[in-house]
Amino acid sequence: xxxxxxxxxxxxxxxxxxxxxxxxxxxxxxxxxxxxxxxxxxxxxxxxxxxxxxxxxxxxxxxxxxxxxxxxxxxxxxxxxxxxxxxxxxxxxxxxxxxxxxxxxxxxxxxxxxxxxxxxxxxxxxxxxxxxxxxxxxxxxxxxxxxxxxxxxxxxxxxxxxxxxxxxxxxxxxxxxxxxxxxxxxxxxxxxxxxxxxxxxxxxxxxx
Length: 208
Prior knowledge:
Distance between the termini: 29 Å
Largest sheet: 3 strands, mixed
Radius of gyration: 16 Å
Helix content: 55-70%
Number of strands: 3
Order of helices and strands: HHHEEEHHHH
Number of helices: 7
Shape: globular
Strand order of the largest sheet: 1-3-2
């Protein structure tokens, strides 16, 4: 049975002070992930191995998805749900001002993907084609992980495989260092999105 929180319960968790995810939390969760996949050869892939990146499942999350869509519009981006080919979960087109999320994924995974793309928008919009792509992907997925964890959703089965690959780390210590170095950026962007979700909670409670 899926025990993840549903809809407004997800957002209400943010009001309970669960937003204070810290770097040590994400690292403890990563070590638990690594124990589940001890055979995972870090740093040897140019893409994300399917066996260690599992899509989020469940039926909840539509209100959280809608809240993130409304935030995206305040940044000048229109979000659309479309069926995308292969393993593509979503992408951002800065020139068109659009974010596309794969409609074939379960709703909780769509929420994670949109949070990931908004992490890019917040942190990387001004340097779209510049810099280390692996670092950008690590930071964006870190943002998604923190936002979802704050709402009671554990995306670790997908996020940590993704982070491990794109960090370029050859061992756990190296990946740990990269996550720690990027933590201020991850936390800053996650806080922006969490604040936007908290606004939705307040508006919902006022209208109830």
